[in-house]
Amino acid sequence: AQAEQIYRQVLSQQPQQVEALNLLGVIACQYGRLDEGIALYRKALALQPGFTLARENLCLALAKRGKQLTDEAIATYTQIVTFEPQNIPAYENLGSLLVSQNKLDEALSYYQQGLVVQPDNPRLLNNTGAVLQQQGKTKLAIGYHRRALAIQPNY
Known about the structure:
Blueprint (H helix, E strand, L loop, with lengths): L1 H12 L4 H13 L3 H14 L4 H14 L4 H14 L4 H13 L3 H14 L4 H13 L3 H14 L4
C-alpha cells in the first residue's frame, strides 16, 4: 500500500514516468486488479514502446486475464522476441502459450529459436522435447530430454 502511494505521488508530478506506471501495474496485478494493471502497462508502452519489462508484465497479465486475451499476449511476446532476441523467458512463455492453444509447430519454432540463442538452456530443451513427444516424435523428444538432464540432472 505504501509503495503504491509513492508511485502515485511520482506520477502526479511526472505523469509520463514509465517505470512508475510499470510498477503500479505490478502492484495492481498482485492485488488482482488485472484490468488496471493492463491499462497501466499499456500506458507505459504507449510512452516508451521499447520498454521490454512493461511488455513482459503486460503479457503475464493478459495471460492471467483469460483466454480472450491470450492472442494479444502471444502477439506481445512475439514483439518482445523481435525487439530483444536474447530474451530467453520470452521464448519460453511464448512457446507455452502456443502449446496451450495446441499450436505445436509454432511453439516448437520459438523454442528452437531460443535454443539458437542459448543452446544449453534446460527449460527450452525440455519444452522442445515435450512438444516433439506430443507430435509423436519420440526418438527426437528423448534426445532433447537427455540433453536437458545432462545439463541439469535434477530437472
